[in-house]
User: Fold this.
Amino acid sequence: MKVYKKFVYELPNEDFEKLLYEKNLSLEVISRDQGKVRFAVYQEPLEGLDPVETYEVKSKNSVFLPKKVGSFLIVPSWLKPLILHPGSAFGTGYHPSTQVSLLLLERFLKKGYRVLDVGCGSGILSIAAGKLGASEILGIDIDRVSVKEAKKNARLNGLKISFRVAEPKDIKDQFHLVIANLEFSIFEKVLKDILPLSLRILILAGLYGKDEAKRIISMVEGFKPVKVKSLKGWYGVAFLKKG
Assistant:
């Protein structure tokens, strides 16, 4: 068991973004609240900044986190690199709802599944599905800029993924797994069009608070909830098709 130092910092949003831009750090975002970002780095402290917390963590692996050296990023073999261009589309991986979606996707996607990503944004969930072994992936969004960014990100990751400008009602095919990370108000409008598209697994995220999670569960017909995941107040629910 290896022991590592964890240094926790807190900065205003603007200073945090500036730090990322200037130093291109490998770090863990812990929370974003009231205009501030709480984050951590491992092994060595940041120069010129005082950590708000410092403590030790244990890991069985010999390398704990990716390490930036010059223009290189050294990534442990047990991690799956997911490369994103910093464009204008939603979905960088920092938001808790995206992280919840990724965790549920990792748990329920099986190799060979055909996957539909509704509201694909930057394409982060579609790309993750490709990394996890999906045989075919379609990402849709109503925003043309998002679709353009998603295509670019898929190429950066060496994946062949189909992206198109479309709404759920435009899709005529069915998929083993359908994932949608959307606002609750959007689910109220399009959920009826999403449900028929899943043959087995349905993952709905972007839900803020227990109330929205409970409401979405009550709205879904033909599926049973099998997992509820939350992070910093954001919820995602995985469903299994009945029968």
About this structure: The first helix runs from residue 13 to 23.
